[in-house]
Write a structure and sequence with these properties.
signal; 12 strands; 2 domains; 23% strand; single chain; D-Maltodextrin-Binding Protein, domain 2; two-stranded antiparallel sheet; ten-stranded mixed β-sheet; alpha/beta
Length: 267
């Protein structure tokens, strides 16, 4: 190799080295010019569309505050739960607001270290329906149980489900209507969603929640395993921890009528 050729080779090698470094830095963050693509499902007080047609709620506000702090814009879309999960599976979104943890979902998204809200799952029945619920799943055999598509009812219920009669529909509202009309015997739901809806439907005199919750689900932030979000998640987690330490997270919870969750996902 001639001296001039050797010099050019070294220069080209150095340029390629820096190109690789820059590329690595870029792909460690969400793409599309620092816009964070966020999905969620309509969850009362967590992620809803407000009277102006804009996404609102505790989860939405947390994402917006942290994204702004980290220098990101946000594109937040709320959609049916199954569609939001599909967007995450296909790598079309960077982050999901509020999913419950499950082994299946962990195959395509990483969950935040801590949840930001918790939901006890209760059994709702007609007030004249005879069900002596004591928290034991065998008691539910022989009763038709209404479920909402895409919801997670806990590992114990999922394992025992083959022994139960269940009927799944797309919405919580549809399940409460079916319950009131006697088309299902029991409906599994959390009070955050149920209380306001029962009042809205005028069913307070007909439907009640039984004591002894089925399980408690915890809602997290989910980060795409397909899109390059791992480094961003680390920064997000640190910013979320700062919200807790400064008391701002408690303020947001009180604003939306919620209590702060503080239970790790592995418990």
């Amino acid at each position: 190799m001639q001296p001039g050729s050797a010099c050019r080779f070294v220069k080209i090698s150095i340029c390629l080295f820096f190109i690789i470094l820059v590329s690595a830095g870029i792909t460690s963050q969400p793409t599309h010019a620092n816009t964070l693509f966020v999905v969620g499902a309509p969850f009362p007080r967590i992620s809803v569309i407000d009277s102006r047609g804009h996404p609102s709620g505790l989860g939405v506000e947390i994402v917006r505050q942290i994204a702004q702090q980290l220098g990101y814009k946000t594109s937040i879309q709320l959609m049916p739960l199954e569609r939001a999960l599909r967007e995450m599976r296909l790598g079309k979104a960077d982050l999901m607001i509020g999913p419950y943890y499950s082994d299946q979902r962990e195959q395509y998204m990483r969950f935040s270290q801590f949840p930001f809200y918790s939901d006890p799952i209760l059994l709702y029945v007609r007030k004249d329906y005879p069900l002596d619920w004591n928290g034991e799943l065998p008691v539910l055999e022989g009763h038709l149980i209404g479920l909402s598509r895409g919801w997670n009812y806990g590992q114990a219920f999922n394992r025992y489900k083959m022994h139960l009669s269940t009927y799944t529909v797309n919405s919580v509202r549809a399940n409460f209507i079916r319950l009131a009309k006697g088309r299902i015997d029991v409906f599994l739901c959390h009070p955050r969603h149920a209380t306001a809806l029962i009042e809205q439907l005028g069913l307070e005199a007909e439907i009640t929640a039984l004591p002894h919750h089925l399980t408690t689900n915890h809602g997290y932030f989910g980060f795409s395993k397909i899109r390059p979000t791992e480094a961003f998640q680390q920064r997000f987690e640190r910013a979320f921890d700062e919200l807790k330490k400064t008391g701002k997270l408690n303020q947001l919870n009180r604003h939306y009528g919620l209590t702060q969750a503080a239970i790790p996902k592995h418990l």
